[in-house]
């Protein structure tokens, strides 16, 4: 019996019955499996980092979770397939590949074949992003999260960098901050300041090396970079080990209606603050193409 083939056929039947809106495949044989799927449902492939890229793929860095003595061959014996699929679904959601509904996952490595079904509304990170999207434009939030993940994962020119983005309530934020370097966005056209346009991200990554923070208005236009926040952190409590950037970001989110997104220089972890508290964090090992 061709067990893998039976799993793929069963997965397709199940996807139809439950009304799945997306199929995600995690397997070294993902391209072959994708060709077997005959449903009119979007199919994307989740790969471990370092695989060959395809514009439709979602990349999930699994290897960095493991001890160095673990090989790719034993990878899926050591990592929960539920965890892998959760990260792939989160990555696809942040990228905007899925908006709601049920996702069916096919995990097939060696002799291990699994079908995983997830309702994205039950995933904690997606719940939190949805809550934030009720206070700020989702397309702006999504763009900044993806850009921050890129910076946290890649750094700049081989070096880790930390930065922060303050979104919305721009007038109040600008009134509670000042430039510590010349504003590189002063006088630039809107199209060149649009953080939603990925063509502008290389420039943002370059300016992320400056001290200070990015100020982004409610429509996603960068108002300033290299901005220092003049805000009191009294009453703001964060987990130990976080530096002044995180403290200032949390404080401005408490003093204004803004959302603050930081990138840690040491770990690359992306943290999101609202109302003076950490809303959630995202591991930059999740890479989305």
UniProtKB/TrEMBL annotation:
GO molecular function, one term: adenylate cyclase activity
Known EC number: 2.7.7.85
Keyword annotations from UniProtKB, A to Z: ATP-binding, Manganese, Nucleotide-binding, Nucleotidyltransferase, Transferase
The reaction(s) this protein catalyses: 2 ATP = 3',3'-c-di-AMP + 2 diphosphate
Cofactor dependency: Mn(2+)
InterPro entries: DAC_DacZ (IPR014499), DacZ_A (IPR048546), DisA (IPR050338), DNA_integrity_DisA_N_sf (IPR036888), DNA_integrity_scan_DisA_N (IPR003390)
Primary enzyme class: transferase
SUPFAM superfamilies recorded: YojJ-like
Record domain DAC: where: 123-284
Protein origin, superkingdom: Archaea
Its job: Diadenylate cyclase that catalyzes the condensation of 2 ATP molecules into cyclic di-AMP (c-di-AMP). c-di-AMP is a second messenger for intracellular signal transduction involved in the control of important regulatory processes such as osmoregulation.
Family under the similarity heading: Belongs to the adenylate cyclase family. DacZ subfamily.
Protein name: Diadenylate cyclase
Chain's gene name: dacZ
């Amino acid at each position: 019996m061709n067990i893998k083939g039976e799993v793929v056929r069963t997965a397709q039947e199940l996807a139809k019955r439950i009304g799945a809106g997306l199929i995600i495949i995690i397997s070294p044989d993902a391209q072959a499996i994708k060709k077997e799927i005959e449903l009119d449902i979007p199919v994307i492939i989740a790969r471990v980092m370092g695989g060959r890229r395809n514009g439709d793929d979602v990349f999930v860095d699994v290897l960095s979770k493991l001890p160095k003595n673990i090989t790719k061959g034993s990878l899926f014996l050591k990592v929960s397939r539920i965890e892998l699929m959760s990260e792939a679904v989160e990555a696809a959601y942040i990228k905007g590949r899925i908006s709601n509904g049920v996702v069916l996952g096919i995990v097939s490595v060696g002799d291990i074949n699994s079908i995983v079904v997830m309702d994205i509304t039950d995933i904690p990170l997606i719940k939190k992003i949805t809550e934030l999207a009720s206070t700020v434009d989702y397309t702006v939030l999504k763009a900044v999260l993806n850009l921050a993940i890129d910076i946290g994962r890649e750094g700049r020119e081989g070096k880790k960098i930390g930065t922060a983005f303050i979104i919305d309530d721009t007038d109040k934020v600008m009134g509670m901050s000042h430039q510590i370097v010349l504003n590189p966005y002063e006088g630039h056209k809107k199209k060149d300041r649009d953080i939603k346009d990925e063509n502008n991200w290389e420039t943002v990554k370059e300016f992320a090396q400056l001290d200070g923070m990015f100020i982004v208005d409610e429509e996603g236009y960068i108002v300033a970079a290299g901005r220092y926040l003049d805000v009191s952190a009294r009453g703001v409590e964060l987990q130990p080990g976080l530096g002044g950037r995180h403290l200032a970001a949390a404080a401005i989110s408490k003093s204004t209606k803004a959302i603050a997104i930081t990138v840690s220089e040491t770990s690359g972890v992306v943290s999101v603050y609202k109302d003076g508290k950490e809303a959630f964090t995202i591991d930059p090992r999740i890479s989305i193409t």
